[in-house]
Amino acid sequence: MAAFYVTTPIYYVNAVPHLGTFYTTVVADALARYHRARHHDDKTSRTYFLTGLDEHGLKIQRIAAERGISEQAYCDEVAAQFQATWRQMEIANDDFIRTTQSRHTEAVNEIWRRLKASGDIETREYEGLYCVGCEEFKAEDEVIEEGGEKVCPIHRKPVERVKEKNYFFNLPRYQDYLLELYQKPGFIRPESRRNEVESFVRGGLKPISASRIKSAVGWGIPVPDDPEHVVYVWIDALINYVTALGGPAAIERGEGNGALWSAAHHLIAKDILRFHAVYWPAMLKSAGLPPPKGIFCHGYLTVKGQKISKSIPATRVDPKAIVAELGDSFVDSLRYFVLREYSLGGDGDFTYEALFQRHESDLGNDFGNLLNRTVSMAQRYLGPVMPALVAGGARGVAQALLQQDAGREPKEIRAEVEKAWEAFEPSRALEAAWRLIRAHNKLIEDAKPWALAKDPGRRPELVAILSHCCESLRWAALMVAPAMPVAAKEILRQLGREQDLGTWPGEWGWPGGTLAQAQPVFPRIELERQASLVARWMSVEPAPAAAKPAAGAELAPPAEIAIDDFMKIDLRVAKVLACEKVPKSDKLLKLTLDVGTEQRTVVSGIAGTYEPGDLVGRTVIYLANLKAAKIRGVISQGMILAAGDADVLALSALDRNAPPGTRVR
After folding, report:
1. Which domains does the chain have, with CATH numbers?
2. What is the C-alpha end-to-end distance of the chain, expressed in Å?
3. Cα dihedral sign for 71, 149, 309, 50?
4. Other CB atoms closer than 10 Å to residue 263's CB: what's the count?
5. What is the pLDDT of residues 623-639, one digit of tens each?
6. Coil, strand, or helix at residue 160?
7. How many CB atoms lie within 10 A of CB 577?
8. For the segment 405-449, what is each residue's pLDDT rounded down to a tens digit?
9. What is the distance between the alpha carbons of residues 583 and 140, in angstroms, rounded to a whole number?
């Protein structure tokens, strides 16, 4: 049986859907849609997509108290918003789990009893630090000091010191098991995250809290046989992936949805990697259950270089607000953008300008243009009925163009698309599909159907060219449907091939169809409106004015250079292949770059802004002809460009992909 079970994290109900939750959920949805389509003709195939909400914990208890409502009433409000948003964003999840559901309580109770039966639950006195925002206990070296207070480095809020007698899970018992598990190829991806987790586990593990005392945290699942404690929120939350399949017994028996566990893939962000890659497999082992098939950890999305934060209005990108302005048809543009723009696994920076650029260029000028030209010319020159493609129908230049630009490429492209989706690389899958679209736009330019239409004797060539374009559109629509389900459906409708929706390209060859009238699928957005919307969405209070220079001081303007001077600078596109910290330095990272013709090493002072794992796979701009220098014992062969003065704010980037070694000018 071909099976695929994909999960998002269950989102904490302290916030409504935002760009980050949208990103993760769209990736999972697209992966599930691909697997459904890819195996549509296999009656034994199963694809299952789970998302949902984490509704317990001290933070939720306090929010509800502040609002003067019950915890359950508050959670119900937020759950309704999530479900409505995901419906609007074309999220086709098979299940929506909530940790306040009775089925989840039953599964948590059963897992707890198994952990206890294995001898892995014990009571201990605990005194230490707790971050309510993370709902996580923090070690002393995991917090920072600001204004004389110890604060969480993620939320920048003071941590609380707690002293409780709680139940603990014996995590150290599973250190060797975890290290062996990490050697399984593909269990944790990308590789940089696997290395990070392995290093953490090799450093030694400590027992982790498995409960909170009810007098301190009342909103949670009571510990079986001890109602004075509630199950710690993270222990509770992780079990949701098992709950949704029918609980631990169903997984053991391999019956019903329980049979899907061996195909489980957890899609998560890097801030919860430790919970999923360390605590969760150890809990499963203790409970007598196998680990999931794999964990894929993606990076953070920033907004113009700033981390998404409730306290910074300009970083609060609301997908619903964007769609409210631009209409439901823009949902697919948003979905396409986050899937195409970012390489899953690394961090990415969101800008509205880049979103509009992708909409106009990739969707409007490439895909939309091919659809409009093909359908319009077919209607005008041949009528609405587009006959099936007959082999050998083209002659002369048309036949040569078909062989060169489209005839042998579709199956190669399809294989590349499939390989990318299977590898959790949606950006590469879409990039490959666009090769087919661009090849057929070029085919139209080279074959000039409007000229062929003037010569009745060349009608077979005209039919062949337009049939190939119809087939390229059909294939492209099916291959990008996981990313853009609504646009794909509309494209197939205009081609008279709605019945193909939900399938996957098979044999190349237009099967025939009755074309509808051409209509824009990706309407153009005028530049003035784009600018107006960006200004409104990015509206924030002006930054404080810079301090005035001391009396008598003058700021010298940068020295002017001639164009000849500028042309001496050799800027190139480079891709980061590996990255590590420079020993005994808090500021320096050592990067290995692919610069097209070779690999080079660069030392860069960006460690204060970027973690090594965030940069692997990222495209940067590289100054290639800077004289090599020895920095902390490492030969640095050039430099990468970054924005900022005293502090690095962001790395330079490109708005479209370009191969390593490409000249920047």
Report:
1. 3-298 (3.40.50.620), 350-514 (1.10.730.10), 563-664 (2.40.50.140)
2. 52
3. negative
4. 19
5. 888 877 767 667 788 88
6. strand
7. 14
8. 444 578 999 999 999 999 999 999 999 999 999 999 999 999 999
9. 23
What contacts 502, CB < 8 A, 6 or more positions away? 36, 37, 40, 481
Phi and psi based region of residue 225 (left: phi greater than 0; alpha: psi -120 to 50; beta: remaining)? left
Written as six digits, the tokens of 58 are 């001290």
pLDDT for position 163:
78
Residue 347: pLDDT over 70? yes
Cα(34)–Cα(56) distance, rounded to whole angstroms?
33
**577 alpha-carbon distance from chain centroid:** 20
> What would the DSSP string read from start to end of 458-477?
GHHHHHHHHHHHHHHHHHHH
Provide the pLDDT confidence category of residue 569 given band limits of 50, 70 and 90: confident
Digit-coded pLDDT (tens) for 254-313: 989 999 999 999 999 999 999 999 999 999 999 999 999 999 999 888 887 777 766 666
Instruction: Give the separation between CA 586 and CA 589, rounded to whole angstroms.
Output: 9
Q: How far is CA 9 from CA 70, 211, 242, 269, 447, in A?
A: 24, 21, 13, 8, 50
* Tokens linked to 61: 């208890």
Q: Which residue has the tokens 């990706």?
A: 522
| Phi, psi (rounded to 5 degrees) for 52 | 165, -160
Residue type at position 495: L
* Euclidean distance between CA atoms 590 and 572, whole angstroms: 18
Residue 379, amino acid: Q
Task: Look at residue 426 and give its three-state secondary structure.
Answer: helix
Quickly count: other Cβ atoms within 10 Å of residue 244's Cβ: 25
Helices (H) and strands (E) in the chain, counts: 24, 30
**How confident is the model over 447-494, as pLDDT tens digits?**
999 999 999 999 999 999 999 999 999 999 999 999 999 999 999 999
The yes-or-no verdict on residue 552 having pLDDT over 80 is no
Which amino acid is present at 358? R
497 class by beta-carbon count within 10 Å (0-12 exposed, 13-18 middle, 19+ buried): buried
Q: Is the peptide bond before 456 cis (omega within 30 degrees of 0)?
A: no
Q: How confident is the model at residue 544 (pLDDT cuts 50, 70, 90)?
A: very low
| C-beta separation of 5 from 264 below 8 A | yes
Closest of 227, 210, 218, 217 to residue 123, by C-alpha: 210
The torsion region of residue 422 among left (phi > 0), alpha (psi -120 to 50) and beta comes to: alpha
Tell me the C-alpha distance between 342 and 425, whole Å.
Answer: 9
Question: How confident is the model at residue 557, as a pLDDT?
Answer: 53
The set of residues, in sequence order, having a beta carbon less than 8 Å from that of 500 and lying 6+ positions away, is 474, 478, 492
What is the maximum alpha-carbon separation in the chain? 91
With both helix axes pointing from N to C terminus, report the angle between 319-326 and 331-341 in degrees, rounded to the nearest 10.
130
Structural contact between residues 482 and 33, judged by C-beta atoms closer than 8 angstroms: yes
Residue 282 — left, alpha, or beta (φ > 0 → left; ψ -120 to 50 → alpha)?
Answer: alpha
Average pLDDT, stretch 331-357? 94
Sign of CA dihedral 359, 361, 367, 371: positive
CA distance 126 to 223: 18
Task: Tell me the pLDDT tens digit for each residue of 237-248.
Answer: 999 999 999 999
Tell me how far apart the alpha carbons of residues 153 and 254 are, in angstroms, rounded to a whole number: 42
Distances, alpha carbon 436 to alpha carbons 154, 374, 410, 516, in Å: 43, 14, 7, 22
> What does the pLDDT look like over 63-118, one tens digit per residue?
999 999 999 999 999 999 999 999 999 999 999 999 999 999 999 999 999 999 99
How does pLDDT run across 584-620, given as a tens digit for each residue? 676 788 888 888 777 788 888 888 777 787 788 788 8
| Among candidate residues 649, 632, 548, 553, the one with its CA nearest the CA of residue 590 | 632
